[in-house]
Design goal:
EVE_domain; THYN1-like_EVE; 5hmC_binding; DNA-binding; about 35% strand; about 140 residues; alpha+beta; ph1033 like fold
Amino acid sequence: MAFWLFKSEPDVWGWDQQTAKGDAGEEWHGVRNYQARNNMRAMKMGDRGFFYHSRSGLEIVGIVEVCAETHQDSTTDDARWDCVDIKAVRPFTTPVTLAQIKSDPRLQDMALVKSSRLSVQPVTDEEWAIVCALGHTNP
DNA sequence: GCCAACGTTGGC
DNA sequence: GCCAACGTTGGC
């Protein structure tokens, strides 16, 4: 199983809205960046991801799971853009802030630190375990 | 709200 | 195929 990180501006689509979708989940549509799309194409059913609030909040607030593999993005007819569906698994007991991540020497290679504009990012097994521990949350 | 960093577009 | 112009993202 692989791990990922999904970014969203909470003013547009936040953790509470994601949670409200329940196990049916929701399309992660709207991605118009090839690298982010390619990351979604690499995802498999059951892969897990962090849900991160960008622009305001600036913290990882929950864990999500891929519940549908990549398919056409329903918000466009352009066949270049497809996306997965994700559902909320559990919130973080303690959100892990960007400042915490930036100040942890073990997390300096995270895409969140190195390529801050990428909206769908891979996370390593090690990073997954460290961030979950920081948030006092089951992996 | 600003603006640096970055990705994309399109003229040549 | 280069690169200037432009648009968007996201931390501050």
